[in-house]
Structure prediction request, 309 residues.
Amino acid sequence: MTTAKFLEGIGGGLADRWLATLFTPAFVFWLGGGAAALQRWGWQKISGEFTTLEDPLQIAVLVLALLGVAASGYGVQQFDFTILRLLEGYWPNWCRPLHRWLLKGQKRRFHQIDQQLQDLSRKGLATPDDRQAYIQADLDLSNFPARSDRLMPTRLGNILRAAEDRSGEKYGLDAVICWPRFWLVLPDGVKTELSEARNALNLTARIYLWSLLFCLWGPGFQVWWPLPLGIIAALLAHRWMLRTASVYSSLLEASFDLHRFKLYEALHWPLPKNPAEELPLGNALTAYLWHGSDQALPQFTWPKSSNDP
Prediction:
């Protein structure tokens, strides 16, 4: 059989790469399209047309199909950042009504959890149920920015916004401004953990997009099952996305908790001597990185050489 000969003729290393290509959301998407086409037109018609081709043409069709899967997967991967931004709630102006409506719901949820936390604090944590409810409310509130004016219209947006804000609230270091410099001084192990967490988050966004695209096979081939399967897959991908975003946010916060002084040292910025000094020094460092400074203070610090007294 031509297909068997084609697979036998692929070298070991190349076969591994093709297998890696096959087990991707892109392959599942095109596999679903093929199944929908089979249901619409029938196996005999499609296989009959394929088998009438000469062997070289059959191999060419298989190669082009695999290349198409790989190319589509690569193409969709370029939209990871865009999809995440949209799911966070960064939308164009014509989406303002939807933005305001969803933001109102997130604010309501934020104030409900905050009020629950205050009520439990006033009541006292006398019972295990009260303590468990307090812990859960505190965890839920940590997935929101501390200030209500920083809220985003989606849960994903609030989880990532909270992670961006926390280093500024605790240490005066704005994560968005400091991150490119901070990344360069992080230990390799930390970079690896952060990269893996970010890649997992990007993968969930990719699966989410492929799931929505999968729904199009339904009206395209006039079959019913792609629509519910695509919606279910998108919902599951979104739940997974929220979990991976929480992991990534926790690692982002932990990297500032443990390694922020490496940024001070790399920039020869004076280290805070106590927690009370850290917030103003961090704010000054953020402003310096963003706008620069012509002020004489604070003075740069330099490590002592072995010849210094």
About this structure: The radius of gyration is 27 Å. DSSP finds 14 helices and no strands in the chain. Residues 226-266 form the longest helix (41 residues). Residues 82-96+157-291 form one domain.
